[in-house]
Specification:
By secondary structure, the chain is of the alpha/beta class. The chain has a domain at about 15-150 and about 175-205 and about 265-270: Rossmann fold, CATH 3.40.50.150. It is built from 9 helices and 8 strands. The protein has helices at about 15-35, 55-60, 75-85, 125-130, 160-175, 185-190, 210-225, 230-235, 240-255, and strands at about 45, 65-70, 95, 110-115, 135-145, 155, 195-205, 260-270. Strands 1, 2, 3, 4, 5, 6, 7 and 8 form an 8-stranded mixed beta sheet that branches. It starts with 14 loop residues before the first helix and ends with a strand. The structure holds S-adenosylmethionine. S-adenosylmethionine (SAM) binds near residues 7, 49, 53 and 54. InterPro entries: Methyltransf_11, Methyltransf_Superfamily, SAM-dependent_MTases_sf.
Length: about 270
Amino acid sequence: MTTTTPIDYVHGYSAHESRRLGDQADTLAQLLHADTAYPAGSKVLEVGCGVGAQTVHLVEAGPKTHFTAVDISAASLAQARARVTAQVPEARVTWHQANLFELPFADTEFDHLFVCFVLEHLAAPRQALAALRRVLRPGGTLTVIEGDHGSAFFHPDSPYAHAVIDCQVQLQAASGGNALIGRELHPLITGAGYDDVTVRPRTVYADRSRPALVNGFTRNTFTAMIESVREEALAADLITPTDWDRGIADLHRTASEDGTFHYTFFKAVAVNPV
Ligand SMILES: C[S@@+](CC[C@H](N)C(=O)[O-])C[C@H]1O[C@@H](n2cnc3c(N)ncnc32)[C@H](O)[C@@H]1O
């Protein structure tokens, strides 16, 4: 954690977490973003850009789109700017440190909003979505992407592996978030006042015939995320050290020769009513 950590963010702001977010975004770019394209000249706000892991893919797909990216963490924002500048030097991005509940933008300023892996960390996700409508023009679109840890199933199955995943779910809930939020996107977005809400599952399935996914998702995204909360899980007495180590070892087995791993993300698109 940095000394400027602005919120109780379960995954933290470490270099390890920054790398994990990058691996996650690069591995999943096709699955999550292939159908996200913003028209030339339109104004897009990425809310909670973190270290810019998704921003890179957005700007690559929209070279003539005007992107603005905000995050509450100044340290993450600085990393995002460095990442995007290094990878896509010609990108047009304006960076702001801001709380999404108090955005420093005029009403209806943006044509589109993009929110990825942010709502799962908020205590009031519906209120956040409702607040964001202020800066979105009538008829503009909202895109939200979230995961749902309840969608993780794998082979070999293991109660210990499920137990370590459940530690993450409990820790995230204790800090006000919801690691099972993917299944709630439709009611949340509808409840925040958007129209034409469509939610579609995006499934990741990895076995040895897809080594890039085994490495990029099963190992370096999902298992790495669970491993990173070891100390917090033990400190909160959610599990014994022995059972933790067994659960993590069993998660790694799902990335072995005969292992398989399944996880579902949810991608929602909605319209701000005219
Ligand atoms: C899991 S990260 C996701 C980052 C990025 N969207 C991605 O997919 O790689 C969540 C981000 O949301 C940011 N965040 C959390 N609450 C926020 C708030 N109230 N306003 C702005 N950003 C916030 C955190 O600082 C963090 O960078």
